[in-house]
């Protein structure tokens, strides 16, 4: 993690000196250009001209790292004289955390991952972390896909179970999404009847679903819980209210562990009751069978989901490889060789079939290494050509250049982050730390509750039940007071009653924690005692369990600052003229908490809450596959012109402001500004115009604020040449 | 830009864009009314619209029908501490927690026989809003989006559909183009976001920024004259005009007399209802306001009275306010929830999820002072005239004159009708 953190500072300096690796891919890049040229010749097309360094720089940063380059990065690239500086920059960016954050946004949209998904549970966060980690370790795509569709167990084992948790209760929809995401084949119509526009029958759909329909999001199971439930049922001395209260008590104790388990059941799938075709009868049992490719034979002992995953991701699967090769091509060049990328029909035609076949072979030869494949694409001459303005939907496109497009919502946001933050890729320490602790707490809670002897859990549940009985008495009393208050229309009193109700709920939660802690403490299991000892740090002992059950709070100001950090902060203090200790402390705290607001999209709650800048600009809500949008809207324009967040870009401590301060002459400042926002120096006309503006402002302190906000509201800022 | 005429044409474009526009080709051309087996079973009932507007009050979390619109005074065991009271409608009793509404029930039709198919919040909420089951391959539109799709908005300068509340999973436009989705308002008192320049930014500075932006962008916009770039150029012009538009006043609650603001209740729901009335007055045709949480698993008899107070104050004021302005006939108020709560009082003096519940319709051409459907003596089962969420939505659609049997195709080429196959309760109309 620490190395990641440091990379961006180092990037600008180191970038151009790392030796180019993977020289063997350059032949593949050249071959792509050859195949493209054959296509142009055949269709009588002139390729677009090559672009200058500045256009390339901005494009490659946005394509790989998902943001515009910082001032230092832009300067370093422009200053570098090495003939292969573009290839080196590509390598450097593919190695960086920016790649992880940028492609995370895309895959989270494809995989519909949400931080607040499925009850905001630990699984939802682990699912997002699975995507992050897979990209960070450059996990081969076939492996990542296999893990997603074949994982079972708890989220403590793997976040990949999020793939099935996401669609809990909807196994048929899940399969439709699976064929779309991994095979580029839309089957949702065939869920209810033979596909009207494609060849899939309803029976084929169900045969495919027979592999995956048993994947079930289960409530948390443990031996101890099963046993104590049995004891509650069997104890004849308990009346029915006590039983209900004890069950409720156990629910409360296990509640933090809900939605953490996916299991593969052993059920049979049947055709629907209204099945209307001749090849089978309604409610017939369906045998698992694949829709194309090499047949898969299941026996009683087979792990259906494992077999399915192997078939799905095999190089012999006729669509798996094509789709990922085309998907990543589309990521880089703005259009697929097949369109729609995730809706291949028998009638779909690749605009350049030889090229498509070549790319598929590359993908297999590179063993589904996504970075290696991207490196091949990025080093083509095609990637260095001027963009084509627009491509008509439905017409084949022969890739005379990449396609001009608007930045994604995340690219716009992340580019703003690069203007504010000295370290745009820095992790959202508060959020990641909170997740880490929550995960560890839940894991620990599971271990403690799993291993505490059932009779001890029984006693704890009984004690909580007693507390609940007391609470009910309190409810009665509160209700009586409420009647009086209502009769007198005494609003103050009614609010007080509400407050006391909240307090009573808090006391009950503490009782759950205290009683189950006491139970665990009495356990003879040594492992439990170790776990308990590990949690009790800070706070009183009997509240220790509470920490395991409730969400962790993390204070951004506790973020550790390493020496590199401190050095940079001190350097900035010099520029800003911060001298007295109090101001220095403030500046330090600002730096520590900056990540809470100005982290990259991938590090913020994902998707961002409704109303956030990201959502206004079309970030996907992750409700359905690839739901992001690049449409213009009035609120976007209003946000860019009047949003309060935007004015922080020009606050004294933003990176942009510090850089402008460092520049001495007006000309320096103008150069700094253009490099920071547009990744290039101004041309003579632009410079003259800016100088004129600066002079007309002369003594105005709002000068750069006005210029910056003007520049942000240009199309030039949010469209990618 | 200075004449009234051009203001209108600008505002028309703004309407398409107001808060979620498409300059890219919208989906409409993909739709056609030709059906294949689709649409079978959808109601053919058509009539002249009786309502122009809908104010939909959504009770998030599952409102206890027993402690609101369907009390069972003869069953002490079911009612717990809750009592029933008489209302201004003969034979209609409601809970004591709604005393102000008791005086307005001659305007209302209470549907006591609502029945849904799930007791899970998210699924039931989605079903109530869209008439379709929650799926992970498609999103279906909310009723306001159907209205916008078929009939457009009532004021080109304002969105056709507004949602006031905090539900991040509102289905919104569903599979329709974004422009049919609701403008989401979290805080009814905050007005529209970002329609004022930041503090300290004078008109002069604002104008200067626009001018400077134009200069910085002129060459780029000339070179890249794509549809997308042009859409953005238009959008900035529209945004600036919106900032100067007199229609913004629709969102400004400070224009209301203080006494009336108090009468609605100084909370988000009360002010949301007031905003709904202002918006409807200015031509917004579908406004939803949500109130929650009614998920009273614990201490139902303390929590429900509090929620009822908020509802009672706001709703009774809304009814009288609309009536006073002569707007009640043209505006249908609907109160509904995702499901009801158990007749059995649980171990924590709460009520759990239950698929039987009640809805209320007021105005918009509906007969007042009546009940429709019934539950059994314990409020546990439907005793007469079961009404499912699609039927309630079909009733809303019927009142608005929407073509209930017209098949519409999503962009994934799947066929749908508004309110699915729901049957409108035509017998409720005057």
What are the salient characteristics of this protein?
heterodimer; A: 721 residues; two-stranded antiparallel sheet; 5 strands; globular; B: 430 residues; alpha/beta; Alkaline Phosphatase, subunit A; 11 helices; 16 strands; disordered N terminus
Task: Report on this structure.
The complex is a heterodimer of chains A (721) and B (430). Helix content of chain A is 58%, strand content 2%. Chain A contains 32 helices and 5 strands. Chain A has helices at residues 2-14, 25-43, 53-65, 71-79, 85-95, 97-110, 122-136, 141-150, 162-165, 171-183, 202-212, 223-234, 240-254, 304-313, 320-333, 353-365, 370-378, 409-420, 429-451, 454-487, 491-522, 526-535, 544-549, 563-576, 581-597, 613-616, 634-642, 655-662, 666-678, 684-697, 703-712, 715-718; strands at 153-154, 215-218, 261-264, 405-406, 719-720. Chain A is globular, with a radius of gyration of 30 Å. Chain B has 430 residues and is an alpha/beta fold. Chain B has helices spanning 4-17, 76-79, 99-102, 121-130, 143-151, 203-223, 227-244, 258-264, 268-281, 300-324, 389-400; strands spanning 53-59, 84-86, 93-95, 108-115, 161-164, 183-185, 286-291, 331-337, 340-341, 353-354, 356-362, 370-372, 374-375, 382-384, 408-409, 415-416. In chain B, a hairpin with a 6-residue loop joins β2 (84-86) and β3 (93-95). The longest helix of chain B has 25 residues, at 300-324. Chains A and B meet through α10, α13, β4, α20 and α21 of A and α6, α7 and α10 of B.
């Amino acid at each position: 993690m620490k190395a990641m953190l440091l990379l961006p500072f180092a990037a600008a300096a180191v970038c151009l000196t790392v030796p180019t690796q993977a020289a063997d891919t350059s032949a593949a890049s050249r071959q792509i250009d050859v195949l493209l040229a054959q296509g142009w010749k055949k269709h009588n097309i002139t390729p677009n001209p090559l672009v200058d360094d500045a256009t390339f720089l901005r494009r490659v940063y946005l394509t790989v790292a998902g943001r515009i380059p910082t001032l230092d990065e832009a300067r370093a690239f422009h200053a570098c004289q090495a003939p292969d500086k573009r290839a080196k920059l590509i390598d450097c960016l593919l190695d960086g955390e920016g790649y992880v954050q940028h492609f995370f946004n895309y895959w989270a949209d494809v995989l519909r991952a949400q931080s607040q998904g499925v009850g905001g549970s630990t699984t939802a966060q682990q699912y997002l972390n699975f995507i992050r980690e897979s990209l960070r370790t450059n996990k081969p795509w076939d492996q990542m896909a296999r893990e997603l569709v074949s994982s079972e167990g708890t989220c403590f084992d793997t976040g990949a179970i999020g793939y099935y948790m996401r669609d809990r209760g909807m196994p048929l929809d899940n399969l439709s999404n699976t064929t779309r995401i991994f095979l580029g084949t839309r089957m949702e119509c065939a869920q209810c009847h033979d596909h009207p526009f494609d060849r899939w029958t309803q029976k084929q759909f169900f045969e495919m679903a027979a592999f995956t329909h048993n994947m079930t999001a289960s409530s948390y199971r443990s031996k101890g819980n099963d046993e104590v439930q049995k004891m509650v049922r069997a104890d004849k001395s308990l009346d029915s209210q006590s039983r209900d209260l004890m069950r409720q008590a156990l629910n409360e104790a296990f509640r933090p562990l809900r939605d953490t388990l996916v299991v593969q059941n052993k059920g049979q799938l049947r055709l629907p009751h209204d099945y209307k075709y001749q090849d089978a009868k309604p409610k017939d049992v369906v045998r698992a069978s694949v829709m194309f490719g090499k047949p898969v034979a299941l026996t009683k002992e087979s792990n259906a989901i494992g077999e399915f995953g192997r078939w799905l991701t095999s190089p012999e699967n006729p669509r798996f490889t094509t789709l990922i090769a085309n998907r990543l091509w589309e990521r880089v060049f703005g259009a697929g060789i097949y369109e729609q990328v995730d809706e291949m029909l028998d009638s779909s035609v690749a605009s350049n079939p030889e090229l498509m076949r070549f790319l598929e072979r590359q993908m297999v030869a590179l063993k589904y290494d996504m970075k290696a494949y991207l490196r091949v694409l990025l080093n083509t001459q095609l990637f260095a050509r001027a963009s084509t303005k627009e491509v008509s939907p439905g017409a084949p496109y022969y890739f005379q250049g990449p396609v001009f497009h608007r930045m994604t919502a995340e690219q716009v946001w992340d580019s703003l982050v690069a203007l504010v933050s000295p370290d745009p890729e820095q992790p959202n320490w508060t959020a990641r730390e909170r997740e880490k602790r929550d995960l560890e707490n839940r894991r620990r809670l599971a271990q403690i509750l799993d291993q505490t002897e059932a009779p001890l859990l029984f006693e704890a549940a009984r004690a909580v039940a007693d507390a609940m009985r007391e609470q009910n008495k309190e409810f009665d009393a509160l209700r009586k007071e409420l009647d009086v208050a209502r009769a007198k229309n005494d609003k103050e009193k009614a609010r007080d009653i509400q407050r006391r109700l909240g307090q009573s709920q808090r006391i009950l939660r503490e009782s759950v924690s205290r009683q189950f802690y006491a139970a665990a403490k009495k356990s003879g299991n040594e492992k439990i005692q170790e776990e308990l000892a590990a949690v009790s740090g800070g706070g009183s002992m009997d509240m220790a369990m509470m920490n395991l059950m409730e969400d962790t709070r993390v204070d951004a100001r506790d973020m550790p600052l390493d020496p590199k950090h401190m050095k940079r902060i001190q350097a900035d203090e010099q520029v800003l003229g911060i001298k007295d200790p109090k101001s220095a402390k403030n500046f330090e705290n600002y730096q520590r908490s900056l990540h809470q607001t100005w982290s990259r999209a991938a590090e913020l709650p994902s998707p961002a809450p409704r109303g956030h800048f990201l959502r206004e600009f079309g970030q996907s809500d992750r409700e359905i596959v690839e739901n992001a949008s690049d449409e213009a809207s009035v609120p976007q324009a209003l946000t860019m012109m009047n949003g309060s967040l935007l004015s922080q870009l020009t606050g004294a401590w933003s990176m942009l402001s510090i850089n402008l301060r460092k520049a001495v002459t007006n000309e320096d400042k103008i150069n700094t500004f253009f490099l920071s926002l547009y990744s290039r120096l101004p041309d003579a006309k632009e410079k003259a115009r800016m100088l004129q503006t600066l002079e007309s402002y002369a003594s105005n302190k709002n000068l750069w604020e006005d210029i910056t906000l003007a520049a942000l509201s240009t199309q030039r800022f949010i469209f990618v040449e | 830009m200075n004449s009234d005429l051009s203001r209108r044409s600008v505002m028309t474009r703004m309407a398409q864009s107001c808060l979620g526009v498409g300059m890219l080709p919208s989906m409409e051309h993909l739709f056609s009314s030709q059906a294949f087996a689709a649409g079978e079973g959808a109601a053919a009932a058509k009539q002249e619209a009786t309502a122009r507007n809908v104010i939909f009050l959504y009770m998030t979390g599952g409102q206890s029908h027993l402690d609101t619109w369907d009390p069972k005074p003869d069953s002490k065991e079911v009612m717990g501490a809750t009592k029933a009271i008489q209302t201004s409608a003969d034979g209609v009793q409601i809970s004591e927690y709604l005393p102000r509404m008791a005086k307005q029930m001659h305007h209302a039709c209470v549907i006591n026989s609502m029945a849904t198919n799930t007791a899970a919040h998210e699924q039931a909420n989605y079903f109530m809003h869209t008439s379709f089951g929650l799926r992970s391959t498609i999103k279906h539109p909310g009723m306001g989006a159907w209205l916008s799709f078929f009939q457009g908005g009532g004021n080109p300068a304002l969105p056709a559909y507004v949602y006031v509340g905090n539900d991040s999973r509102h289905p919104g436009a569903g599979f329709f183009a974004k422009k049919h989705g609701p403008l989401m308002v979290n805080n009814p008192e905050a007005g529209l976001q970002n329609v004022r320049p930041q503090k300290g930014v004078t008109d002069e500075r604002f104008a200067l920024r626009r001018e400077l932006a134009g200069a910085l962008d002129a060459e780029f916009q000339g070179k890249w004259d794509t549809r997308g770039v042009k859409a953005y150029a238009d959008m900035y012009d529209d945004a600036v005009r919106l900032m100067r538009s007199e229609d913004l006043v629709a969102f400004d609650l400070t224009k209301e007399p203080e006494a009336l603001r108090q009468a609605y209740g100084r909370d988000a729901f009360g002010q949301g209802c007031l905003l709904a009335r202002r918006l409807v007055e200015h031509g917004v045709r579908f406004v939803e306001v949500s109130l929650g949480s009614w998920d009273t698993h614990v201490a139902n008899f303390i929590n429900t009275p509090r929620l009822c107070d908020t509802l009672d104050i706001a709703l009774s004021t809304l009814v009288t306010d609309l009536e006073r302005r002569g707007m009640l006939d043209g505006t249908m108020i609907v109160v509904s929830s995702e499901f009801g709560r158990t007749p059995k009082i649980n171990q924590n003096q709460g009520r759990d999820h239950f698929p039987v519940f009640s809805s209320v319709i007021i105005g918009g051409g509906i007969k007042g002072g009546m009940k429709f459907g019934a539950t059994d003596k314990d409020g546990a089962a439907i005793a007469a005239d079961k009404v499912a969420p699609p039927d309630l939505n079909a009733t809303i659609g019927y009142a608005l004159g929407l073509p209930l049997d017209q098949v519409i195709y999503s962009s994934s080429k799947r066929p749908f009708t508004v309110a699915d196959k729901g049957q409108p309760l035509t017998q409720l109309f005057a």
